[in-house]
Design brief:
Blueprint lengths: L2 E3 L3 H4 L10 E5 L4 E5 L7 E3 L13 H18 L11 H16 L2 H22 L10 H4 L7 H10 L4 H12 L10 H5 L5 H9 L1 E7 L8 E2 L4 E4 L12 E8 L2 E10 L3 E5 L2 H13 L4 E4 L2 H8 L13 E6 L2 E6 L1
Parallel strand pairs: 5-10
Antiparallel strand pairs: 1-4, 2-3, 2-11, 5-9, 6-11, 7-8, 8-9, 12-13
């Protein structure tokens, strides 16, 4: 079982405390503060985002993400708030890839993708299969399948005692129940990585704002560090003209991108402590289940009155119907 980081450990290491060389972490749903290293198991999943083959050791995502992570972090180090020089083409490209990768690699994106795909597929399946007689499932064909686990074995044993009509009735009932869920496989999720070059190319073309925190304060980060804030309920994706992209690159630096602005330029903005706090609140609200800060007192002040009980790990899908028109939206 391989360990696959959903947030790069070397990226997180930038937030290590000088006092004990650990990360100060706020566990939202436990409303608890802990100290852990960048390799803490909360930042990785077993066999997460896999695109493999039965033979050999072909493992595309880990090879690709390692390359993007390495080059991206080197580019971040070259962003100098004092000199405020423009990045060269290679470093700008590396950082564009890094932003795109971090947006799609987290559990939050994966969870929302599952929800969105699931609601789409369920809606049209239920529309097409509007009665039990539209199911054409053969018991004989089902029983040819070899069970992969005990649960499947038990299911096949139960099916063996049923008629085709009973199987179709039960299938129809299950399809239209709240228990019916559809999720992408690990391989399906891994294919998201094939979108990175297109996303990075578009991010490369945009105007980037580097917000620089003053001394005495810093940006926090989370287990979902790259996210978008939209001015409307619709079109909230990474490159939507309605959004602002936020990604704290270092404790002193946060990149903010508005996709409608295209100039291939970097703009440096020195912000005050009040603005840093406003951005940190957004970062916290858009986390998956934990937040990280370089200073523990800073983290405690930020989260002291946070409504952790109502924190949403991911958005839900709303379905709008108007005649024959159907719209699915994450809200």
């Amino acid at each position: 079982m391989q360990r696959h980081h959903t947030v790069q450990n070397k990226y997180l290491a930038q937030w290590k405390s000088k006092i004990n060389n650990q990360l100060n972490i706020y566990l939202i749903f436990k409303n608890e503060y802990i100290e852990r290293g960048p390799n803490w198991k909360g930042f990785w999943k077993k066999d997460y985002n896999i695109y493999d083959e039965d033979k050999g050791n072909f493992y595309l995502p880990e090879e690709v993400t390692n390359k993007i992570d390495t080059e991206g972090l080197e580019a971040i180090k070259k962003v100098d708030g004092n000199l405020q020089k423009q990045l060269d083409g290679y470093d700008r490209s590396a950082l564009a890839f890094y932003v795109a990768l971090q947006y799609i690699r987290t559990p939050k994106f994966r969870e929302e993708t599952d929800k969105f795909m699931g609601e789409n597929i369920k809606f049209f399946m239920r529309k097409d299969i509007s009665s039990p007689d539209k199911f054409k499932i053969s018991k004989e064909e089902i029983l040819k399948q070899k069970p992969k686990n005990q649960k499947e074995k038990e299911a096949l044993e139960k099916i063996s005692t049923m008629t085709d009509e009973e199987i179709n009735q039960q299938s129809y009932k299950f399809l239209h129940s709240d228990d019916f869920e559809i999720r992408l496989t690990n391989t399906g999720h891994s294919k998201q990585i094939l979108k990175i070059d297109r996303l990075a190319k578009n991010i490369f073309e945009l105007k980037w704002n580097f917000a620089i925190a003053p001394k005495g304060t810093s940006f926090i980060t989370t287990d979902n560090p790259c996210f978008t804030i939209s001015s409307s309920k619709i079109r909230q994706g990474l490159l939507s003209p309605n959004v602002l992209i936020f990604f704290p690159l270092r404790p002193d630096l946060c990149i903010i991108i508005k996709p409608v602005l295209k100039s291939k330029k970097e703009n440096y903005i020195n912000i005050d402590k009040k603005k840093v706090r406003e951005i940190n609140k957004l970062i916290l609200e858009n986390s998956y289940q934990c937040a990280i800060a370089k200073d523990k007192i800073h983290l405690e002040c930020l989260t002291k009155n946070y409504d952790y009980k109502n924190h949403r790990k991911s958005r839900d899908v709303a379905v709008y119907k108007k005649g024959d028109y159907v719209m699915f939206n994450l809200e």
